[in-house]
Design brief:
The protein is 60% helix and 0% strand. It is mainly α. It is elongated.
């Protein structure tokens, strides 16, 4: 059965390889699984940074605030 996951070749420095290998062994998971999980976590952190930047851009003195009801209606629909 073919996997739906995409493959990527990555060159790692010795210290990075050793650290990733240690973490995979510590967590009793395959090397690639640990690498994938850490990449996903890094992407989530980058997303959080981007949303934080967007939120700071939207904060200004020229903001018009609206009530929840005004935006979403009386029943939040």
């Amino acid at each position: 059965m073919a996997t739906e996951k995409k493959r990527v070749n990555v060159s790692l420095s010795k210290p990075t390889y050793k650290a990733l290998s240690y973490l995979a062994k510590r967590d009793d998971v395959p090397f690639a699984t640990k690498a994938s999980a850490l990449i996903e976590e890094a992407l989530e952190l980058e997303e959080d940074i981007a949303f934080g930047y967007l939120a700071r851009q939207r904060e200004s003195e020229n903001v018009t605030y609206r009530s929840h009801e005004e935006v979403w209606g009386k029943y939040g629909l």
